[in-house]
Fold each of these.
Amino acid sequence: MKPQDLTESLRKHPFLNNLSEDLLKTLTSCASNVVFDEGTYLFHEGEDAKIFYLLRSGRAVLEIAGGERGQIRIQTVGAGEVIGWSWLISPYRWHFDAFALEQVHAFAIDASCLITKCETDCRFGYEMLRRFSEVLERRLEATRLQLLDVYGSNLGERGENY
Amino acid sequence: MSLTTLMEHDTKSSEIMAPSFALVKRVIWETDDTYTLLIDPPAENGGGFPFAPGQFNMVYAYGVGEAAISISSDPAKPDQLAHTIHRVGTVTSALSRLKRGDMIGLRGPFGTSWPIDEVVGKDVCIAAGGIGLAPLRPVIYSLLRRREKYGRIVILYGARSPLDLLYRVELEQWSKARNTDVIVTVDRGDSSWKGHIGVVTGLFSYVKLDSPSTVAMVCGPEVMMKYTCEELQRRGLRSDQIFVSLERNMKCGVGLCGHCQFGPHFICKDGPVFRLPVVNQLLEKKEI
């Protein structure tokens, strides 16, 4: 794919909504297209996080090792979403596995390339951090909701007489 | 109030507090702790039990007590009444032990309904969590029965695990209806589950709502509804385009006893279905 075609494809990804033209070009220089077949792993827990993915199609599931409970699936991620922020935060290792439930088409963004761009262009760095903060906030909110176990049987005083 | 009016009021109150007899036709276990009672409507209703989607009945387990339960059957089939019930306490446990031919008491239907007529010509987004799909099932039946009258229908449903999903066969059937998307997610799934994992609010990433022409109906645990309503508004819906169904411990069902008071409202009489701006501020308050 030519760089201009890649830029056009990246522009359509929701994570990059309204990103200015010059910043989009900067990002394009760190991006490539990747495909993962169904049943393969995008990455494994503990590996160096050198990349993050913007999903174009297909779905992947995030798993964590639950010891005796085996692999625990915690969240599915689909088209238009982002996988991975471990590249951004020390010690730069994946905290979970990502497994392709279906064939996944994604943009892979090279983290070392991106970090260099972020450090040399503060405007670009701020824009990336701002967008990732939104993703992090949404994931944190979702995790809190999951922890609340809102569908559980323990309804408290509302249900005790029922 | 004159003596005559008072006496009439008392007569009406006592009539409305007296349950009618109804027979259990069948008990269907939907999940480990949730079941649907199929009921023959009370004979005095002439074999029918007209209701509007979203309304509830006070269901009486004789000798045990009453519980407010939403009607989960098709309003177009008033001779086949159904209640889907989460077994959580004394009354719902007693009801769960009933068998075909056992008798229960019914009072109702009570409360406000989902705005089926108001959404004609519009897109409808239905977001349900857990047992919250039960009060919305009559809406889905009604929308699909007159499918041509509505725009796109999006049904988002979240449950605790794949084993906790209600109406699995119907979810599949609904997804085949024209211009209808059904997306299901669970909080926890194992490797045998191929669907979505995560909270129901995460499903909005996969649907693009035409916000000016969409009306949303939301039912589930209050925390889930709060976050879902926030997400809908983040996606451009005004709060007055969103309806929620609330639940409180109801006793009389007709706004007399005050058990289900929610700020200035009685859930049983003024609800359970509310337009969001009417209750939005109250949902934020811990004390209520």
Amino acid sequence: MNNSFLLDGEDVPFTPGQTVMQAAAAAGKYIPHLCWHPDFTAHGSCKLCTVKIGGRFATACTARAAAGQEIDNITEELTAKRRTLLQLLFVEGNHFCPSCEKSGNCVLQATAYEMGMLSPHFDHFYPDRAVDASHPDVLLDFNRCIMCELCVRASREVDGKDVFALSGRGAKSHLIVNSESGRLADTDFAVTDRAAEVCPVGVILRKRVGFAVPIGQRDYDEKPISEKAVGKAADGVKEAG
Amino acid sequence: MIIKSMHDSLRIPGSQEDSVAAAKIATILERHGRDGTRLVQILREVQDALGWLSPPTLTAVAEGIGWPRAQVESTASFYSFFHTRPLGEYRILFSDNITDRMLGNQDLLRSLCHKLWLEPGQVSEDGLVSVDTTSCTGMCDQGPALLANYRSITRLTPERIDEMAHLIRRRVPVGDWPSDWFHVEDNIRRRDVLLDHGLAPGEALAAALDRGPAGLLGEIERSALRGRGGAGFGSDIKWRSCRDAWGDAHYVICNADEGEPGTFKDRVLLSSCFDMVVDGMCIAGLAIGASKGFIYLRGEYRYLLDRLETRLAQRREAGLLGRNILGRGFTFDIEIHLGAGAYICGEESALIESLEGKPGKPRIRPPFPVTHGYLGQPTTVNNVETLALAALIAVKGGEWFRAIGTPSSTGTKLLSVSGDVARPGIYEFPFGVTVAEVLEAAGAQHTQAVTTAGAAGSCLAADEFGRRIAFEDVPTGGSIMVFDRSRDMFEAARNFAHFFAHESCGFCTPCRVGTAVNARLLDKLANDHGSPYDLDEMEKMHRLMQGASHCGLGNTATIALRDMLAKFRPAFDRRLHSPDYEPGFDLDAALSQARRMTGRDDPGAHLTDNLSAHAGEAPSEVQP
């Protein structure tokens, strides 16, 4: 058998060692995801990339591709699950898209559109999360955090700084920064860090450039995420080799 | 130099108090070799010494072990028994398992709070004491129970609560409280081959050394021993995979983090059969080629720590642990790590994370611990009971063991029986025993329901009591909680839902948010705002969490709830306020703050009265 698996009935080639997600992205196939990024170690926490491999649920970003796998990705059952997961993320934080600087560039929002999420459905938790505006160049709005830990990984793996970490447990999980005061200004974070640009939602925002591109002309205003993400991810996976 | 750098980080170099704190932190760090993998132990000892883990303390610890401060804070904030804010000289935590509730813990908690003039969860205004709840402390056979500064107190009564309030107000140290309060009974009600082993310390280990690693593994294979934590994985397969895995070192971990509500069998094994457990660990070490083992002891069993340490030291003196055991050239030693209040650490990869000083979040698997475990090395994680049984098999042989129990579930099982029974305690039965036989032995009457694997397993109704305790029928880690007909199963479901919401590690979306949604839905029913819609929502959460969760916690968190919904539906239907949709947002409750501020409580200050008065006319007016 050659090195390929079936994703929704279509043949997807892979190189040994690749995960299902990496192989799918390289082949231009979109598997919904939030915490996965081609440049960083897979995390497997958001569970948006839950697929069915041989009838069993698995996380595409952590499951190794194997020859002959039959994988369901875009099915009614999985889309419904993903929609529910998105709704859970929306009610867990404070997401007010119309006033958010990230609207149109937000992976959470774009994925919700893609999955046909029409309402948050569940009662909002309305967590009390303070904003950190201490840093001269960057604002942290924790209200929108989805615990994907991309900033944690970017700061650790690329910047070598460990500026971010997840703290707390369960529903009390929250993002913290590496300083005794708890303020970003007291860390060695810089606006040029990789961690400054990986946030898929609107937590880590550059100051003084807000709304430079008007809403309506942004990434996911142009194209849905299923088209946009595939192009980006495929480039990333190819570059990463 | 070390002391000086501590001073700097504590920011008040002149203060005598702070220099004492810095010296204490430095001593603890030195004792642990400034090794970050020992962070959970370091934080516990620092907190014991200083009362709480203040921001400067965490900075000092981070500098001491050379870790980023955020990672130290991440660990400190993960475990329930660590405080990153002051919680008083006295920290009183009532065990809040459903069995404690059935024994009246809520009245006792309210009474203590009343006597101490404080609200649950808050610190008294003089900073002296705080009173709160904690997950099951493993004393269900002698509850209601609590932890006073992390020491177990059992068999609470209103009189004990009265006296406790006096002792706290008079600032009597917990160590000077009446010693009988801290007495923990074994309550062994039925003994079989394990509890009646009759073996001398080291006897099983000697037998294993006689058999040699290959012979020993052969006996374990013949015994068909399966893991007693609940999952039932074949012990011989686990040990062989671990032995065959390449690594610089191999490790044995004894999982003594029994956090499943209603379980207390490991507590009894550790207090009464500890030598069998240690022999079992040494035997596992022999089988997989390890020379080092850890016991991960749940924080709730802190009271056992000194006693177990002493026993390990005695065994070293007697040549039953450490270098050249029994003069046979076999070296194996054991270290005890204490947990800090996190149910998730019973999951083996979360346990290993905790042993490495990190928050107990389960790893992505594969790779499994048998190949990539503690410090990335091959590691076997076994339940306390499994290890004790392995010691028994080393002496008696696999064929002998296999003759006990059923073909797919060999040997005996320790059952922790609590709830509505005349004789709560430990029952050792061969696998295959029916639930009815267990109930009869324990003196249960008018039984309505039995949970067979704590909060994380099935809930059986009376017509299922003929089923058998065995991996192939009713699998269990040993927690058997019994509910008679006077009990409201809705309250059991609600207690479990809050337990999981509290214990979810928060790593994956479905479990982190799903457990919280379920707890909220059940509260909504409890507050008379429920509708059938909410029950459907719970069903929906069950379907989501079972498939999509990262680990066993999320995958099992809704099993009992679903069973209770299916089998005890009237208990839920009784709670439904409306046959149609009911919003979760309570308009009248939202006004309560305004009522408090204005000191009003007349009908005009209540929305519900106004609403019901107009309900027939214009329901559209009440839409928010």
